[in-house]
Amino acid sequence: MGGGKTLPGFPCAKPTISYWQTTPHPIANHRTTEELPTEHVFDYIIIGSGISGAATSHKLLSHGPTTSILMLEARTAASGATGRNGGHCRAGWWLNFSKYKDAFGEDEALRFERLEEENVCDIAALVGEHDIDCDFQNVETTDVFVDQRRWNMVLDVVDAREEVRQRRADAAPLTQRKVWHGKEAQDRLGMRDIVGAVTYPAHTQNPYLLVCRMLELCLEKGLNLQTNTAALEVRQTSSPGGKELRWQVSTDRGTVNARKVVLATNGYTNALLPDLAATKFLRAARSQVTAIRPGTNIAANPALRRSAGIDIGRGDYFMSQAPGLRGEGDIIWGGGRSASNRPEDANTTDDTVVNPEIAEYLHHAGAQFFGREAWGDEGDVLMDWSGITCYTPDSFPLVGEVPGAKGLWASVGMNGHGSEY
User: Fold this and answer.
1) According to CATH, what is the number of the domain 138-201+283-391?
2) pTM of the model
3) How far apart are CA 101 and CA 292, in angstroms?
């Protein structure tokens, strides 16, 4: 951030360090050119170097190799939510099928489902095509439920989705799911207090390494990446002579220009779009994750060889590092919002701190869900960290050209999604 004071709503200069970032990537502080290219007019300026910014750059350069792109990152590469998440890559929003069907119709609900499923497939294909070293693992993931009322609602969604599949030849899901009830769920997953579960194929990964490698692929195709360069203002202007509209982005190192700008800024978007901020449609919040060692009795339990989301109402999730991977056996456990209602965790872009109440809860969540006897003596707490996520009232992101601002595009408001659960 240029060493200056952090402005409200912008990325903070000294965030917590996530588990994935303990060894900084070689491109963490990369600047393609020593000086900011203020005299050049780029085809695109992309603000943000997380999964959205990296994917946008990769797609643009893959389809148009001569496209000129400048990427601005306020901190180090992939230092935002992408480099701080829980390590999941799974199509977890199948649970919203009935909600979307009621609101937008059956065809749209199926499109939402397919979009998420294809996104997961695309990530897996990208990793395979480029042999990306990011601890990418195929796993069985699970949605587990501890509340009977919630479980009954899930079963209603399962039944509604199955009814559509049987009625329509074009409605088969890409992801095959299996429902487990009561004791069979408890025995399969090793969690004694759950009332039901749904399992399906997914992946775990090191999201930081994935996105940094995506950025490297873009650099090889001509991307100009400028880290530690905070975008402070985006405004429309005209070219000399007024023949075309352009966009100027003011940064803490100078002003740069492009024909189009893409905001991949998620929770930080309001700071750059005051008109959008005034609507209060985008809401930034602080999320939290911890890394722990497994208990003495559960380390070899196959129940840990998976990823899981624990009851939508509770919002927990976990995964463990498989044998042979970096940090073998480490458990990444996130969520914990049910443990605290501190107002400072909402409407904030401050990821320099962790909530101690949530941290304490996450440290012991494994023993709570698996049972003290099954878990054994608790292992060490490796680290706690936070990250800034972004939410919308209807749970949908804002993707596309910003209304009334031709040439200004956005891919923001991911509601906890992205490359993760």
Assistant:
1) 3.30.9.10
2) 0.94
3) 39
